[in-house]
């Protein structure tokens, strides 16, 4: 299979049961994405697949042939952190840091989703279709609900995302 990860193309031979997460961690040494629950429930493994967030522990690597993956390692521009990474640091939106890569990848995607007008469960019904969805704290919490932080840094995570959304 061939996959583009963080802008670099890789040709890999993988067992057809290998998950995208395991291919990233074990074959490409990209260990930023974490294996938390291995059932798609905690979000620690969240990466971006063709710009959309996915739980990489649930995707078979072979199903990602020909796609583009962005991991936490690919968000920065050289030594310059992505604005979401900067905001997480500035707002102290991490404690142990285990969930942070997945949280950040999810936040990057939710900013894009909201900007493109994709509604969530809590988006008001009167929101005009296709218009940017305002990121209220409730909207951010709903959109981040697939990511669990065992340390409880949620208020600061919401603050960090709000800062970037402004």
How are the SSEs placed, and which strands pair?
Layout: E1 2-5, E2 8-11, H1 20-27, E3 46-49, E4 52-55, E5 68-70, H2 83-90, H3 100-115, H4 137-143, H5 154-165
Parallel strand pairs: 1-5
Antiparallel strand pairs: 1-2, 3-4, 3-5
> What's the overall average pLDDT, rounded?
97
The total of beta strands comes to 5
**Largest sheet, if any?**
5 strands, mixed
N- and C-termini, Cα separation: 40 Å
Number of helical segments? Answer: 5
Apparent shape: globular
Secondary structure category: alpha+beta
H-E string: EEHEEEHHHH
Helix residue percentage: 25-40%
Strand proportion: 5-15%
Q: What's the quick description here?
A:
The chain is of the alpha+beta class. The chain is 31% helix and 11% strand.
Which structural traits does this protein have?
single chain, 166 residues, alpha+beta, 5-stranded mixed β-sheet, 5 strands
Structure write-up:
This protein is of the alpha+beta class and 166 residues long. The chain has helices spanning 20-27, 83-90, 100-115, 137-143, 154-165; strands at 2-5, 8-11, 46-49, 52-55, 68-70. It starts with a strand and ends with a helix. Strands 2-1-5-3-4 form a 5-stranded mixed β-sheet, covered by helices on one side. Helix 2 crosses helix 5. It is globular and about 45 Å long.
């Amino acid at each position: 299979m061939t996959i583009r990860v963080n802008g670099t193309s890789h040709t890999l031979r993988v067992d057809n049961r290998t998950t995208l997460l395991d291919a990233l961690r074990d074959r490409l040494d990209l260990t930023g994405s974490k294996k938390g629950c291995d059932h798609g429930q905690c979000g620690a493994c969240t990466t971006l697949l063709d710009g959309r967030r996915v739980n990489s522990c649930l995707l078979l690597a072979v199903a990602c042939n020909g796609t583009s993956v962005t991991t936490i390692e690919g968000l920065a521009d050289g030594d310059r952190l992505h604005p979401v990474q900067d905001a997480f640091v500035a707002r102290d939106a991490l404690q142990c840091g285990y969930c942070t890569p997945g949280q950040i990848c999810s936040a990057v995607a939710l900013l894009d989703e909201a900007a493109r007008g994709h509604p969530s469960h809590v988006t008001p019904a009167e929101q005009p279709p296709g218009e940017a969805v305002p990121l209220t704290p409730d909207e951010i919490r709903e959109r981040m609900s697939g990511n669990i932080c065992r340390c409880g840094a949620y208020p600061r995570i919401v603050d960090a995302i709000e800062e970037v959304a402004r």
